[in-house]
Specification:
single chain; 426 residues; alpha/beta; Urease, subunit C, domain 1; TIM Barrel; 2 domains; nine-stranded parallel beta sheet; 15 strands
């Protein structure tokens, strides 16, 4: 047993001073106390926060980060759809062993930047020819192995990917993603669930890649059959062309169709949702569904801007992800969420709706709490008896945080800080 003393610890209710946390040899919390224990005390100077939650990752895309930042000799322009062709090329080439190595390197970097849990939106299921591996969960297990090696918790979400677009057969370049039927996908999902039981750091979610990637009747069928109490993720309304195609083929905008055909609830996490109208925004909030925003990737791809201020004012909840991993800092993701709103509104601190609010606190608590839901994790507080002491100390031995008033610590971290100001506990 070991007893740590923390100057300040961030809990759900805010900052608390002088907390004593007793852990066993595996760093599992045994006690959380406010009074001085009799045992030897090991002081930890700094501000203790739980790790960030990364609610959206495509690990294999880390292998292409930075290599698509220019026009090819034959191209006159570039957009999401041309970027996607390059992504397919990577997906067709990466072996199980290479995926595990790429994911291990990626997850190590996530941990260095302050993440302790990642949701892997995983659709690279099959071999080079598009045939299932003998072990259906081969590629998923490679990601699980990577998470163990990196020391990060993982929620793996094997994705249903069936067709190449609205009323289009699958593109041969998508062959490693494809499950032909709901039952075929559920068989894969069940194998991933079984494999996850061999790991103590892995949860499993369920989902469809997007409305354009699965037949509408099969989306409806899958979510009716899916377990009620696990996280459900899907891309939606990321591109304007996607919205136009959905209207053309389904007669509804993507979120509009989803609201009318699927019983959304707080277990649903809609990724991007960039191009939504007022009615769709209000419908999402009414159902309790959540949004996952990935500002560095959305900016890199030129997606557009989610109507964050209106969504937040009306009670909407959101988490963050690093998606294609063009950026890996949770601080960067959060500051750019706010900065895009500031640029639109031409004002400072627009997310502060009441006197005495602090932007950094709003962003941190929202992203953390909604991120937990995206992972399928239920907690009463940020640190609890029976769980590992996973968190980071914001160090005080630097100009940025030395003698910083406690109410400004999270704001300083998010708007001015980086991984160099974080010390990982375990």
């Amino acid at each position: 047993m070991k007893v740590y003393r923390f100057d300040n610890i961030l809990l759900k209710t805010g900052w608390t001073e002088e907390i004593y946390i007793t852990v066993d040899d595996e760093k599992v919390i045994q006690k959380i106390e406010t009074t001085l224990p009799e045992e030897e005390i090991f002081p930890k100077e700094g501000y203790l926060i739980p790790g960030f939650q990364n609610a959206h990752s495509h690990a294999f895309q880390y292998a292409m980060a930075g290599i698509n930042e220019g026009l090819s000799p034959e191209a006159k322009s570039d957009d999401f759809w041309s970027w996607r062709e390059n992504m397919y090329s990577i997906a067709l080439k990466i072996s199980p062993e290479e995926l595990e190595q790429v994911a291990t390197d990626l997850y190590i970097e996530m941990v260095r930047h302050g993440y302790t849990h990642v949701a892997e939106f995983h659709y690279l299921h099959h071999d080079f020819e598009g045939n299932p591996y003998e072990n259906l969960s081969e590629m998923s297990e490679r990601l699980m192995n990577a998470s163990v090696a990196a020391g990060i918790s993982l929620t793996i979400i094997p994705m249903f990917y069936q067709v190449g677009g609205f009323n289009l057969d699958a593109n041969p370049k998508q062959r490693r993603f494809i499950s032909q039927t709901v039952d075929e996908y559920l068989n894969l999902f069940e194998e991933v669930q079984k494999a996850s039981e061999n790991y103590n750091n892995v949860n499993v979610g369920i989902g469809v890649h997007s409305l354009r990637a699965v037949k509408p009747e099969d989306i409806i069928s899958l979510f009716k059959k899916a377990p009620a109490d696990i996280p459900k993720h899907l891309h939606i309304s990321e591109q304007e062309q996607e919205v136009r195609d959905c209207v053309s083929h389904l007669g509804k905008r993507p979120v509009e169709w989803l609201l009318e055909n699927v019983n959304l609830d707080e277990n649903f996490h809609l990724v991007h949702a960039t191009h939504i109208n007022k009615e769709e925004l209000e419908g999402i909030i009414k159902t309790g569904a959540n949004i996952v925003l990935c500002p560095s990737t959305e900016g890199n791809l030129g997606d557009g801007l989610f109507p964050l201020l209106e969504f937040f004012k009306k009670g909407g909840e959101f988490s963050i992800g690093t998606d294609s991993h063009i950026g890996l800092s949770p601080m960067e993701e959060l500051r750019w969420l706010d900065y895009t709103v500031r640029l639109i509104e031409k004002s400072r601190n627009p997310l502060c709706l009441n006197a005495g609010d602090y932007s950094g606190d709003i962003l941190y608590h929202m992203a953390y709490q909604t991120g937990l839901k995206a992972m399928g994790v239920t907690k009463e507080d940020y640190f609890e008896v029976g769980e590992k002491l996973k968190g980071y100390l914001i160090t005080k031995d630097n100009t940025l945080f030395k003698n910083k008033p406690i109410e400004h610590v999270l704001g300083t971290l998010i708007y001015s800080g980086g991984p160099e100001h974080l010390e990982r506990l375990i």
